[in-house]
Amino acid sequence: MSDNKTRMSAPKDALEHQLYYHGFRSRADAELLLKNNGDYLVRATDNRQCTELVLSVRHKNVVRHLSLMYESSKWQFGILRSTSHKLRQFDNVPDLVQYYTNNEKHCPGSVALRNPIAKPNWQINNNNVSYDKQKDAIGSGNFCSVFKGKYKRLGVEQDEIVAIKMGLSEQTK
């Protein structure tokens, strides 16, 4: 693939393949999905002008949003940095989630990760879509651009041709 071609492949144990990973999802959308104490999901957000991962969990009837931080090639919760409390670090996000699912007393705020909320079937994984930013541009407006792309549907040999609509702020990432 050329440098402009966009498709990511990830190992089967990567975050993108975890049922609780929802990709880009707003705080409000996450809160609607987390109905019972212990329900959780991991989502991406770009509210602070950069992409970050957030673990959203319902705890004591309130949804908490815990930022995940990547530092020194390790993942950890992005909280309690100013305290003397040393946070455990992990090679990847699924390992972090698995550890705190099994060890809730060590999770910040003692939140319990009990029920992973699966991504809806209609939501497409980004790594199943590819396009060339230079060759596949169809058009653009004040808020977004549209590209011709290919969607690799699981269990189907031939890629499907799709239109990909991207907000202008997403294109600079």
From TrEMBL:
GO-annotated molecular function: ATP binding
InterPro entries: Fes/Fps/Fer_SH2, Non-receptor_tyrosine_kinases, SH2, SH2_dom_sf
CDD domains listed in its UniProt record: SH2_Fps_family
Protein name in UniProt: SH2 domain-containing protein
Keyword terms: ATP-binding, Nucleotide-binding, SH2 domain
Domain named SH2: residues: 20-117
